[in-house]
Amino acid sequence: MKVLIVGSNSIHLSNFINGIKSKEVELSFMSEEKCDFWKEEMFLLNFRSKNPITLLNNYFKLKKILTKNSFDVVHIHQANRLAFFVTKVASKLRTNVVLTAWGSDVLLVPQRSFFHKYLVKQTLLNSNYITADAKVMIDAMLRLEPNTSKYKHLQYGIEPVSAGIKEKIIFSNRLHKDFYNIDKIIVNFEKFQKSNPEWKLVIAGTGTETENLKKLVERLGIMTSVSFVGWLSSEENNSWYSKSQIYCSIPSSDGTSVSVLESMSAGCLPILSDIPVSHEWVKNGENGVIYSDERNPFEAAIEIDFEKAKILNQNLIEKKALKESCVNEFYDIYTNIRR
Predict the structure, then answer these.
(1) How far apart are the first and last CA of the chain?
(2) Strand partners, 246
(3) CA 101 – CA 75 distance, rounded (Å)
(4) What is the spatial distance between Cα 11 and Cα 16, in angstroms, rounded to a whole number?
(5) Sheet bearing 129-132, strands edge to edge
(6) What domains, with CATH codes, occur in the chain?
(7) What distance in Å separates the CA atoms of residue 142 and residue 132, rounded to the nearest whole number?
(8) Across residues 203-228, what is the average pLDDT?
(9) What CA–CA distance (Å, rounded) separates 315 from 301?
(10) Which of 92, 94, 132, 235 has its CA 20 to 30 A from that of 204?
């Protein structure tokens, strides 16, 4: 089966590709940027230009690629600009398209303007099958394209992380952008740490706000209790998951985060944003904490039975989010869509 994967330079996409490679597929890859994880020849097309001549030239290049290679399935990851053009060409060529939405692409982008809403809606209309890792994303897409037979609630899937000996560590590894509210984590930790000085906060990742976040830590006087460990490899991430007692991720909007699932598999107690997707995984006060401005989330977390929550979370991940079963479901979609 000839499959074209369309996506960006993402560790989550890299992990998905490594999983689907175990199946009987011949993979090709297309992106708007060079991707570290793809070592073979790839199709590089950029639709970010505002020059109509450049866009038109790339459109014809795209059409030539899809016509020449006769892919059985095109699997697009994220409903973005490239996805719009790929689905448009593929629908004309009657090439089967699977679209996997990522989160903000269908939750936030359509709200920016009529034009953005149009692009996302057309991408959905021109896709044969659409997956999402959160029900709230499917609900949002149904409002744009109400063909219920197109959608499947399906995770990327993760390799479970082994739980080690837990320490009094709070771990955060989301990007350092305003959207992810790392500053709120730091401010709440400073208040919590006054009465719980033995706890440490470890902040992984990088981004446009890294320097501002470091200055905030200095201003609050908690430099000895907060560590910035930078961009981590998968192995380094797993090591922190393994020994951290609490994992904190409070973005303003999100789909199901792979990082959240990995942390739960490692027995971390999750503190998550009060957004719909969080309630699909956490029952507040039982196996995690739903963040609220009304109470310090870390104070709420240490009142929970960690061992009980650990077992609940590991069982939940085993039931709903292991990579092997999720990859099998994606492969079944590829197989069924060709019939």
Answers:
(1) 12
(2) 170, 269
(3) 11
(4) 9
(5) 43-44, 26-31, 2-6, 73-77, 96-100, 129-132, 151-153
(6) 2-157+323-337 (3.40.50.2000), 167-320 (3.40.50.2000)
(7) 12
(8) 97
(9) 20
(10) 132
Reference 317, options 285, 286, 284, 280; nearest CA is 280
Selected residue with higher pLDDT from 168 and 35: 168
> pLDDT for 311-326, tens place per residue?
999 999 998 899 888 9
Torsion of the alpha carbons at 272, 277, 279 and 284, rounded to the nearest 10 = 0
Which of 47-56, 59-68, 136-145 has the weakest average pLDDT?
47-56
Residues 182 and 203: beta-carbon distance below 8 Å: yes
Average pLDDT on 164-193 reads 97
pLDDT at 339 over 70: no
Measured from the Cβ of residue 229, the count of other Cβ atoms closer than 10 Å reads 14
- Under 8 Å between Cβ of 163 and 266: yes
* Residue of 266, 293, 295 lying closest to 169 (CA atoms): 266
For strand 43-44 and strand 26-31, is the pairing parallel, antiparallel, or unpaired? parallel
Name the amino acid, one letter, at 76: I
The helix/strand/coil state of 118 is: helix
Using DSSP's 3-state secondary structure scheme, residue 244 falls into strand
Tell me, what's the pLDDT at 12? Answer: 80
Structure tokens at 53: 């001549």
